[in-house]
Here is the input.
Amino acid sequence: MGLYIKRAFLLVILLQIGLQTRADFYYFLHHKEKTAYRINSTTWNLEKLQREGKWLVLNRIKLDSATITSLPVNIEINQIPSEDLNQVYFSANCTNQFYRFDLKSMIFNRMDKTFYRGDNCHAYHFFRKGVLHSVGGYGFWRTNNHIIYFDEKSKEWEAYSSTGTPPQGIYGGFVAYIPEKDELISFMNYSHDVNVNNGAFFRDKAIYTYSFKSNKWSQRGSVYSKAFLELFDKANPNLHNGHYFTGKYFIMPAIPFSGFQEYYAINARTLEIFNFKDYANRLTRFNIYSHESKVKEVLRNKELVLNIRPNQSEKVVYVDSQLENVDALFLNLKSVGFINEQIWYQSEMFTWYLCLLLISLIVWWILKKGKSLFFKRFKYANELKFSGNLVNKSTIFLLKRLVETYATGGIDVDETNSILGLTTLAHDAQRYKRSAIVKEANVKLALLTNCHDTIQRQDSDLDRRQKRYMINSLAINAVKDFLKP
Here is the structure.
């Protein structure tokens, strides 16, 4: 009899060890309550984090044996944000398995009948019109660019057939669903195939969009911003995690400066870049990405991020939590540029403008002189007579302001736009119009100053990404004489 008891006891211990190979807790953050919950997978109780840092047991969770046995071992299980406040969804990484927990009925069950696949590790999950979708991922030694959705009737995953120019892979970069446009945006993702280029990872700088209405991929430019590319390289992103999307911003941690935390945000709709520096030390012990700390639990639900930290006492009897609205960190901050913004003289439009200008000058020269350009002597600007009528009023106002600020390094782009009356135009229109006005003014002022760039555009001493306008030091005296009453 004693032998049977010992064997039964040993069997219970082995079963308990087997259960412990799964995660002890499945955490989730309730968006409306801004509160952390966890499912205890040992006792199958729902627990809620209290303000004093203790976990309160609420209710017993109902689930069947099939759901318990289907929970994968040693697989990361994450919450999928949704609009339904009474339903919590979890995805098992790499498996296409997902689970639903009903907060009203307290039922936890597996939703799909998917056979273990393993080809979509670290895919991007989102709900579109109430239907769960998955994009990209990695598995079987290659990345993929598939867009799949869960069919509620068959309990299986189905794929979209698409046209256009899709990215080779969607993995480790930026991808988001924009509901008001009903489209995906993807950029800076990686593609990889063990049989291609010796298995190297290729980073794609092109910006792609996918329209669910037309089932078509389109390319809408590329990432040109030098500052953004340098940040991307220095941040050394973890390919297996991708980048956190709040519903509005992609969040990128930067290398801490002087002990302060620093984050960059990219607006998924406008592609503008914003920078937040934690001068108040609010985020000293805070992590946005779970892989940044092995001690803390990092829970995310849309723009909300909650850190759960054990206390540092000898006996851990409570936990310390910190909740942050990540979108609010970048509220009222000024944009530092666009990821798809080209240097003006490297843009395709400038190249076409330059070619057109060159052709126009050649045609004008031939028509005016009637002789070959190669045998005609050029007249220098100082041989012609300059007249003040060649310069319009806005340019004169600009010259006066540049002379006034010559000793302090000129004026910034915003003030230049204001003087030239360009403030009502769009950002790109401002840049092209401003460049054309300054170039035209410099052509005319060359007759006066003998300088081809009387008005110069230079990098700011404080921030190289900011541009300033100032008078050329070789032309300052001539301009001052011209402006004298």
Observations:
- Residues 6-22, 372-384 have pLDDT under 50 and may be disordered.
- The CA atoms of residues 276 and 331 lie 9 Å apart.
